[in-house]
Give the backbone structure.
Amino acid sequence: MTTHDRADVAGPIAAVRAELLSSDDVDERLDLVFSLFRASFRADRTHGRSGVFQFEIDTPAGVRYRCVSVADGHCTASDVAPAPNAVIAVDLADLVALSVGGLKGTDAFLGGRLKISGDVVFAMNWIEWFGARSRI
């Protein structure tokens, strides 16, 4: 994504952030978080790599699952993935904070607020491919 492209999504991302912080519906909030992630995707940084991130999100309504698949320079989100490369477990409040730049992934991981199973090295691609929310 070029600087110009990032400027084009900055307005919609700001709108999603505002809506995200005001939503009380768990599934709506998750849909907004993952739309923000998709808008932040940096295909040029994948360098042809691909894989699947599965999120296990602890919410007041129970555990919810979301997956982000990256392939051929595109990312998609869905509820399930047959064989994720990495599984990221996090609670809803921390996921929201991560998505809007209020919490860094490394801080959450080191503080035990985010847990990774599977291919930890693959999971670290998230930062490069989706960038820090605070930069948007």
